[in-house]
Amino acid sequence: MIAKNKQELVNLWKNVDCVCFDVDSTVCINEAIDDLAEYAGTGSQVQELTKKAMGGNVTFKQALAQRLNIIRPSKKLVEDFIQSDKCKLTPKINSVNQGF
Predict the structure, then answer these.
(1) What are the angstrom distances between the C-alpha of 81 and each of 6, 35, 39, 53?
(2) Whole-angstrom Cα distance, residue 22 to residue 24?
(3) Under DSSP, is residue 80 helix (H, G, I), strand (E, B) or coil?
(4) Rounded Cα gap, residues 91 and 1, in angstroms
(5) Cα separation of 97 and 13, whole Å?
(6) Residues annotated as catalytic (active site), given as ranges
(7) What's the angle, vertex CA 66, arms to CA 89 and CA 45, rounded to 5?
(8) Digit-coded pLDDT (tens) for 68-78
């Protein structure tokens, strides 16, 4: 369904059972895997693979596996990264959430 006006769009959003978002660069302004790589000291290598994946040169699955192989994240690294508070929300994303 394509909404014809703002009110129709608001009604559509309020009546759905579920909404899914691409979090990286949509809900958050950053790419979490690139930030994790930077935190782990492998940022430039991983960013290059991210660009290739976004350009369609490799599949998402292949790019994810390659990036994780470079980062080699441990549970502690991920926990420390989460505590570093790197995630920044996209401006006005809270107003989208309030619509539900």
Answers:
(1) 39, 9, 7, 23
(2) 6
(3) helix
(4) 26
(5) 10
(6) 22, 24
(7) 70
(8) 999 999 999 99
